[in-house]
Amino acid sequence: MLRIAVTYENGQIFQHFGHTALFKLYDTEEGSIVRQQLLSAGESGHGALAGLLAENRVDALICGGIGGGARTALAQAGIRLYGGVSGSADDAVNALLQGTLVYNPAVSCGHHHQEHGENGHTCGAQGCGSHRLSQ
């Protein structure tokens, strides 16, 4: 079984890992989703979120933007990161399972002093290109 977490808001991938209020967890077996549930981030922030995901036995995370400290915390927890993704959370998980998820392995969100969401900006759009998951 593979457990995938997605930063989540109203069916979409929330675009700033450190500010997400919810994760949607997907339990998968043999390339299919077998269970879904919502997990509140509570008062956790940035690095503490990696611990929350580890406590909930998450294997992989799909998100928009993410800072360097959180990336490091996820790596130390053994959680694979698929960042720079936007759109429907369900569609992204299905794409990951099918080996077609387009993501950015170098995604970063090092501009925390800026307001997010203004002028069309999303953290997931930052970074240096995208990558298609290969099987």
Plain-language structure description:
There is one protein chain. The protein has one domain: Nucleotidyltransferase, domain 5 (2-Layer Sandwich). It contains three helices and eight strands, in the order ββββαβαβαββ. Helix 1 (47-55) runs parallel beside helix 2 (68-76). The chain is globular, with a radius of gyration of 14 Å. With 135 residues, the chain is an alpha/beta fold. 36% of the residues are buried. The strands form two sheets. Strands 1, 2, 3, 4, 5 and 6 form a six-stranded mixed β-sheet that branches.
Summarize the amount of helix as a percent range.
Answer: 10-25%
Give the overall form: globular
User: In total, how many beta strands?
Assistant: 8
Low-confidence stretches: 111-135
Largest sheet: 6 strands, mixed
Q: Could you give the topology of this structure?
A:
Layout: E1 2-9, E2 12-13, E3 22-29, E4 32-40, H1 47-55, E5 60-62, H2 68-76, E6 80-82, H3 89-98, E7 102-103, E8 131-132
Parallel strand pairs: 1-5, 5-6
Antiparallel strand pairs: 1-2, 1-3, 3-4, 7-8
Helix pairs in contact: 1-2
